[in-house]
Amino acid sequence: MPQLNPTPWFTIMLFAWLLFLIVIPPKILAHITPNDISPQKTTHSKKEPWTWPWY
After folding, report:
1. I need a labelling partner for 47 at 20 to 30 A (CA). Which of 7, 9, 39, 41 fits?
2. Signal peptide: which range, if any (predicted)?
């Protein structure tokens, strides 16, 4: 049975993992994000306590 011979399937799996780990990540990371990340305000507003209606 050819399915039980691991030699061709191991090389296919090895090349697939090399493709996923070496070729594809630089292509994905090369894209520029469309939105510039702006820093958030560092000043905190005063929090008011919550008034529960059933108390």
Report:
1. 39
2. 1-30
